[in-house]
User: Which sequence fits this backbone?
C-alpha cells in the first residue's frame, strides 16, 4: 500500500492539511482575478440573433498565492467549471481581468499563451470523458510535450513512465487504453498529463467527484503529496465540503456566478458569515465524539437555484434566504472584508456586525428555509418529502427512514408515520421560531450583532 493510501479519508477529523504560513503572508499572488465575467450568448431565430445570455460567471475577484490551495465550492451550475476554464484561458472572458504571474492573460492570443500554458494546467471534471479512448496512456500523457514541442531529458517515453510512477500507475501500462483502467486510475492519468510540463498552477475541476469514496481519499492524498513534492499551487473545485475542507488553505463559496464568501479554512468552517455558506455547512456531518448524542440542526434551503439567465435582483440569494430584507432585494451587497482575511457579500452576515441594521425580514423569507434535526432519522427522512404541517394525516410514510426496531409491515408503517409526524411537528416549531427570531433580530431594538437564528441553528 502506498503512503497516500495509508492516510485517512478526507473529511475525517484531524486529517486536514496544516495551513502554510505563506497563505497568510505571501506578498505576490500567482493568480489575480478581477471582476471576471463570462456570459454565454443565447441565440435564436433564423438569423441567430442573441436573445439573452447565461451569466455563468458574473464579476468575481480573488487572488491565489504561490504554494497555497484555494478551494472553490458551490451548488451545481453556479459557475465553478466556467471559472476554472476562464482562469486557465480555455475560455475567453466576456469581461474582467486575469493576471498570471504578473502577465495580463485576459485576452492574450493563443500564440502568446503557449509558453504560459506550460505553467498552468487543468485536471478536468470527468475522468471518463477527458481521455481520448483511441489513444494509449503513453500517447495521452505525452500530448503536452508534443503540443509544446518539448523533448524531456532521456526521451518522452521515459518521462511519461516517470510521471505514471509518480501518480501511482504502473509504468508498464504505457501502451494500454483508457477503458482498461478504473475510474481512480483514469483520474491519475489526467493528473499525470497535467503534471507533464511541471506546471506552477493546477486547476483541478472536481478531481474526485466521479470516484468512490475510498478512491477519493487516495486521489486527494496524491494531490496533497504532489503539492509538497513539486511546490504546486492549486485551485480545487468541488461541491463536496468534506473534500474541500481536507485540501484547502482558503475557500471561496460561489452562488449563481458570484463569490459570496472567501476566507481561510478555519475561519470559514468555525464562523461562516454568509447565510448560504451556513446552510451548506449545516448539511455536513461533523465527526466529533464529544458531540455524541447531541442533536444538530440542518438548514434545508427550499426552492430551486434561480436561472443564471435572469438572476434575482440585489443579492442573488435573497429568494432562498431566511434573513432577506428589502435592501437585499434591491441592492447587491459588495464582497467586503468584515474580518481579517474573511470577505463576505451580505447585508446581514452571521458572526459579524449587521451591515444594514433596522430592516424587517421579508414575509417570503419565512418560507425559504426549514430546520431539520439531524439527530432524528425519521425527521430527516420526512424532510425529503413535502410535509408542510404537523398533521400526521398529511404525511406520506417514509418507511425507509423508520428505525429497524419499529417492527415490520403495517406496524412499521404506522410507527414510521408517527415518527414522521413528531419530526414534522418539531421541525415546524423550530423553523417557525427561527424565522421569527430572525425577524426580531432585524428590528431596531434587537440587541447585539448576532442574530438569534444563529443561536437556534448553531447547536
Ligand atoms: N458552453 C456553454 N454554453 C452555454 N451555457 C453554458 C456553457 N457552459 C456552461 N454553461 C452554463 O453556465 C452555468 C455554469 O456552468 P458550470 O459548468 O460552470 O457550472 P458548475 O458550477 O461547474 O456545475 P457542476 O457542479 O454541475 O459542474 C450553467 O448554467 C451552465 O448551463
Ligand atoms: S441576508 Fe440579504 S444579503 Fe445576506 S445573504 Fe440573505 S438575502 Fe443576501
Ligand atoms: Mg463543473
Assistant:
Amino acid at each position: 500500500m502506498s503512503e497516500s493510501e495509508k492516510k485517512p479519508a478526507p473529511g475525517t477529523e484531524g486529517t486536514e492539511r496544516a495551513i502554510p504560513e505563506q497563505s497568510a503572508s505571501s506578498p505576490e499572488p500567482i493568480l489575480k482575478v478581477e471582476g471576471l465575467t463570462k456570459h454565454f450568448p443565447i441565440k435564436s431565430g433564423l438569423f441567430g440573433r442573441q436573445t439573452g445570455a447565461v451569466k455563468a460567471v458574473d464579476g468575481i475577484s480573488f487572488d491565489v498565492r504561490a504554494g497555497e490551495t484555494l478551494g472553490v465550492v458551490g451548488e451545481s451550475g453556479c459557475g465553478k467549471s466556467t471559472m476554472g476554464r476562464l482562469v486557465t484561458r480555455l475560455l475567453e472572458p466576456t469581461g474582467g481581468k486575469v493576471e498570471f504571474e504578473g502577465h495580463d492573460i485576459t485576452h492574450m492570443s493563443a500564440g502568446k499563451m503557449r509558453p504560459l500554458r506550460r505553467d498552468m494546467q487543468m485536471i478536468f471534471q470527468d475522468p471518463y470523458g477527458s481521455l481520448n479512448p483511441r489513444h494509449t496512456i503513453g500517447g495521452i500523457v505525452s500530448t503536452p510535450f508534443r503540443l509544446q514541442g518539448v523533448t524531456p531529458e532521456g526521451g518522452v517515453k521515459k518521462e511519461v513512465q516517470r510521471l505514471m510512477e509518480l501518480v501511482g500507475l504502473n509504468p508498464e501500462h504505457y501502451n494500454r487504453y483508457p477503458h482498461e483502467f478504473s475510474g481512480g486510475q483514469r483520474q491519475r492519468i489526467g493528473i499525470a498529463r497535467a503534471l507533464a510540463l511541471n506546471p506552477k498552477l493546477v486547476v483541478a475541476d472536481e478531481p474526485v467527484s466521479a470516484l468512490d469514496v475510498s478512491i477519493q481519499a487516495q486521489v486527494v492524498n496524491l494531490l496533497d503529496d504532489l503539492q509538497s513534492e513539486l511546490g504546486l499551487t492549486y485551485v480545487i473545485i468541488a461541491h463536496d465540503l468534506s473534500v474541500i475542507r481536507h485540501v484547502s488553505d482558503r475557500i471561496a463559496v460561489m452562488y449563481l456566478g458570484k463569490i459570496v464568501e472567501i476566507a481561510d479554512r478555519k475561519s470559514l468552517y468555525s464562523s461562516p458569515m454568509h447565510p448560504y455558506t451556513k446552510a451548506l455547512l449545516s448539511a455536513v456531518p461533523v465527526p466529533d465524539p464529544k458531540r455524541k448524542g447531541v442533536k444538530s440542526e440542518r438548514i434545508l434551503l427550499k426552492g430551486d437555484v434561480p436561472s443564471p439567465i435572469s438572476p434575482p435582483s440585489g443579492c442573488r440569494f435573497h429568494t432562498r434566504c431566511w434573513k432577506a430584507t428589502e435592501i437585499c432585494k434591491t441592492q447587491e451587497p459588495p464582497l467586503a472584508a468584515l474580518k481579517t482575511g474573511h470577505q463576505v457579500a451580505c447585508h446581514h452576515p452571521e458572526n459579524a456586525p449587521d451591515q444594514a441594521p433596522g430592516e424587517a425580514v421579508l414575509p417570503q423569507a419565512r418560507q425559504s428555509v426549514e430546520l431539520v434535526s439531524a439527530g432524528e432519522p425519521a425527521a430527516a427522512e420526512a424532510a425529503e418529502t413535502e410535509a408542510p404541517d404537523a398533521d400526521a394525516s398529511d404525511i406520506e410514510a417514509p418507511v425507509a427512514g423508520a428505525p429497524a426496531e419499529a417492527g415490520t409491515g403495517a406496524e412499521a408503517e404506522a410507527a414510521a408515520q408517527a415518527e414522521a409526524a413528531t419530526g414534522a411537528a418539531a421541525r415546524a416549531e423550530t423553523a417557525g421560531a427561527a424565522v421569527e427570531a430572525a425577524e426580531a433580530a432585524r428590528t431596531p431594538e434587537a440587541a447585539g450583532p448576532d442574530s438569534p437564528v444563529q443561536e437556534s441553528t448553531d447547536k
Q: What stands out?
A: The longest helix spans residues 409-442. The CA atoms of residues 325 and 361 lie 5 Å apart. Residues 274-275, 315, 317-318, 321, 323-324, 328, 333, 346-348 surround iron/sulfur cluster (ligand 2) (CB under 6 Å). The mean pLDDT is 78.
